[in-house]
Amino acid sequence: MTRTAVRPEANPRAAFRGDVEGLRALAVVLVLVGHASQQLVPGGFVGVDVFFVISGFLITGLLVAEVNRTGRLSLIGFYGRRAKRLLPAAVVVLLATLLLTFAFLPRTRWSSTGWDVVFSGLYAMNWRLAEQSVDYLAANRAPSILQHFWSLGVEEQFYLVWPLLLAAAVWFGRRRYARTGYLLFALTLVAVPSFAWSVWLTDDNPARAYFVTTTRMWELALGGFLALLAGHLQRLPRLVAAALAWCGLVAIVASAALLTESSAFPGYLALAPTLGTAAVIAGGLAAGGFGPDVLLALPPVRAVGAISYSLYLWHWPLLVVAEARFGELSTVTGLAVAAFAVVPAALTYRFIENPIRMSTTLTWEPARALQLGALCTGVSLLAGLAFQFTVPPTSTPMPPTLAVPTVGGTGVPVAAAPTVLGAAALGGSPASSDAGVPVDRVGSFVPDPLVASKDGPDAWRDGCHADQRSSAAKACQYGDPNGSFTVALAGDSHAAQWLPALQRVAESKKWRLRSYTKSSCPFIDGVVALDSRPYPSCTEWNEKLRAQLTGAERPNVLVVSSSFYVMMEDGERVTGQPQAAFAEALRRTWAATVAAGIPVIVLRDTPYHDRDIAECVSENPKNLTRCASPRDKVLAGGGGPAHETAARDNTKVHLVDLNSAICPRERCAPVIGGALVYRDNNHITATYAATLAPRLATALDRVLG
Fold first, then answer.
1. How far apart (Å, rounded) are the C-alpha atoms in residues 462 and 182?
2. What is the rounded average pLDDT of the residues 415-434?
3. Which residue of 43, 226, 384, 565 pairs with 256 in a disulfide if CB–CB is 3.0 to 4.6 A?
4. Domains detected in the chain
């Protein structure tokens, strides 16, 4: 459940088009079914593009009609109509979402949901999601319960600009034909750069491209072109118009069936659903009874179209809550939840959306509609901010320098004592230690699950963990800056998670430690996939890093680790034997490093759980065994199997496996020795990593001699 859409307004003063209402129904059904089960409609997210084109067509048509009728454009009237149309239903759903969050979602999500309400109330949710899409702190978070408000933000941001451009065209073009020319020119100025930017950014940063307004404005502008050219389109021959409309409908359905989450979208691929929608709208102007309106204008279809805005608003929070409570939803369950959304949607439409939209007072007094909109926005902001007070006070993540075992000459943790923390409690035989047995309850532990996601390595705060956009191989230096022995740490966030342990080893042994890490990017000679597409900044980062490691920044030993990645060949994902392809790329990379005179130490990857362990602990403080996953299952995920394969048969590549101190029993305890082991489903906390320092020191001594 990741890609979401929003329905454009249906203004009562617009000339009613049954086929357009039916298009709304089709689009919202695609979105709902796509969210409920991607197996059924993998590209259901194209509904957003259908909505954008419809919105551009209707809103531009209304604005132009007003100008043609009155010779002027009332911005107060326009924004008043938007406010009464969208905000009342939206604020009801935002408030209900806070209640659903309080009642059903883990405490770890409460604070972020409160801020999501604030951003949604300001129609800026898309920019919040765009920033989070490249934020390694947010990379493993569950989808926001208000993620679907992103497209509302896109639409309203466009309509902050478009009426102003239209007003300028009215001022320049006193006559109707001249005014139309100026409007077409203004739309072209919006559409062409936006489409070009969409294509470029989709290739460069697809996650960000999906959410930002600038990559979507051309879709709304396309609808505007249709409104301006409607008079010409009405003169199309009936059979030509009908054929055009049917082809457009096929294009929409085919896009939903053939596109997937891994498609390079929006970019060029967004042309299929948007041009398809444009074809249905354009053809419908002249097709008569031969077009797809014979299906789209059927009463049941139009009924779904009528409530589609409220239906869209409600379906996503219900799906998120259901998934949080019951785990991954089956196709049948997901569809049932999506279908249930019809109930609150119909009630919202009947008692909130429609009465306010049809209000005579608000129609004739747009200033009051603006006041209502301001009230709704204010309520959203205050509710979101006030919700922060429901989050219990927590301590910040415990500094790993406190209450952790020291690195002794033997590398064996100090025996259990009041100040012993984490892996130190396991003693010398983790597999037989009671400290590693999952239990239902423990005393106090650190860090608090509410702040566990922030309990990461110093590289985050020191500015040397590159995000997904950066290709700079920047190092942070730790340990003894004057040390004669240099250790380099390289890889993705699964390498960075070992930094707290390595720092303590380096400090105790007077080593110089350099950390080179990048989000979602292993140390590898090859092209890895990010969102099922080539990850060019990772390739560039690796090239620069290899040059540095074999040049002026040559270390005495290189320590690496990583998650698992799908490799790319000739622009396509290697799907036949992805584990083997990844292992071979690692083997080749490590062999080349060894050939350059640099020994390689591989820290086998850590467990991969099916759920966020910090969230689970937060939700089950008296039944922690619910959060204990089978050891064999979680160690079979991630990069561990590939690490084992790639490290074989090279005496200068040494595999170090500390998972016996991370998951020592048949089931992995979420808390060991008063320390929360995991900050999400696949990274260990910095607090726990620091307690592994003595064991890591022992392993490194064994390798280095």
1. 51
2. 76
3. 43
4. 18-389 (no CATH), 455-612+638-663+684-704 (3.40.50.1110)
